[in-house]
Design brief:
The chain is of the alpha/beta class and 308 residues long. It contains 9 helices and 12 strands. Helix 8 links the parallel strand 10 (217-220) and strand 11 (243-246). The chain is elongated.
Amino acid sequence: MSLLFINPNRDNEIWKEILLEKDPDLDIEIWPRVKDKDAVTFAVCWNHPKHVLGNYPNLQAVSSLGAGVNHLLNDESLPAHIPISRIITPSLQNEIAEYTLNAVLNYRNHIPRYVDQKREAHWSKHNPVSKKNSVIGIMGLGEMGKAAAKLLLLNGYKVVGWSASKKDIDGVTCYDASEKDTFLSQTNILVCLLPLTEQTHGILDLEVFKKLKKPAYLINIGRGEHLVEEDLVYGLDTQQLVGACLDVFVEEPLPQNHLFWNRPKIMITPHIAAVTDPEEGATVLLENYKRALSGMKMINEVDRNSGY
């Protein structure tokens, strides 16, 4: 029985080292050098090649290397009966919350504009966007969304939240799927932390931007596929939005000829809002590996019907 890492362009050796410290009896393989495909019972994946999971006939469970799982749910080579788990750790939650707060502060204090001004040796002051008039609306109130909401509340922001089913979070006015328009009408800083599902694909579109309270700003930390890219550009050109901060994209790395690069109102970061800490993540992986071999339900096991 072996545990296989399939994570191209990642340092899988550090994960192997930490896991072996926790359990020296583990048999760990790193794709593409797999000694015995029949021995693989558990796979850990991030941006894995399409259809590669179909090569392991005795696979019993699969884990994402992070909180997102759409790369696994969309893999047609992964049999439907094989359970999927994801990694959610305190450090991931903290990083997402801190990234969100930082993006809000950068917007309110015009930091991207000042960076451009420095490059041009141009001295000009801009009034900060009012904090008391800034209502932050979070789409997606799972573990990441809750963490972001709580940190924003601690920093004195008014926060509203929207999710498929209504949540109960102290200090946050929460809305369910049927109340999206009410949620949007109160929001002028929109944060997307939704899982990617059939229902949320393309949810950040022009119709949503039009319903936001003005001036409106977008922060997308969910998935690139949540955003209709052409609608963002049109929304900026027609002043439905005054700017956006994007950490995720349909194609990553973002191509050099992509139109977003030349848009000064779009802040771009290369999918770094939160990165799984190997020490924390290895603890979850090891527990889920043991649970999967014993036929037990895994930590953060994914409901394939809901997509998260």
